[in-house]
Design a protein that fits this description.
The chain is mainly β. It has two domains: about 55 residues, Roll (duf1285 like fold); about 80 residues. Helices cover about 10% and strands about 50% of the residues. The protein is built from two helices and 17 strands. A hairpin with a 2-residue loop joins strand 5 and strand 6.
Length: about 150
């Protein structure tokens, strides 16, 4: 079985041997087929090829959001990752670790980090809730828990 190695930078861009992978179909395939091995590495198997991914914390980086508001309240958030893969935000999975904001994607299977642009889009809806960070969403405050590790 052939093996290939990819790196994922802090912005969620995927590189192979120094060249950025930009084909949206390939990027979407990688994100949808990715699995985490018992030793914590990320792998995509395609036909007779093993494609290994290295990332500083997670290969899933939310690059931008589509925010839906009604009467100035946030009522919907669609997360966009590499290759224009998108899915709705699970507000219950929000957590902060150090300066970074995370949530779960792919049905809760993976941790995704909000990239700079995504955080800027969400910032107007982040509120203080008795000294803790929360998301104002659908008329309620959703606590963002503090995580100590992924």
């Amino acid at each position: 079985m052939r093996e290939y190695r990819y790196t994922v930078d802090r912005d969620g861009r995927i590189f192979h041997e120094g060249s950025e992978i930009v084909d949206p179909l390939v990027l979407r395939f990688f994100l949808l087929a990715m699995q985490q091995t018992p030793d914590g590495r990320y792998l995509v198997v395609c036909q007779r090829e093993q494609n290994w991914f290295e990332a500083s914390d997670t290969p899933f980086v939310i690059q931008r959001l589509s925010c839906v508001t009604e009467r100035e309240q946030l009522v919907g958030v669609e997360l966009y990752l590499a290759g224009e893969h998108h899915e709705p935000l699970d507000t219950e999975s929000l957590e902060a670790e150090g300066p970074y904001l995370y949530c779960r994607v792919r049905g809760g299977a993976f941790r995704a980090r909000f990239g700079r642009s995504a955080v800027q889009q969400l910032a107007p809806f982040l509120v203080d809730d008795s000294g803790a960070l929360a998301l104002a969403f659908r008329g309620a405050r959703h606590a963002i828990r503090q995580a100590s590790s992924p």
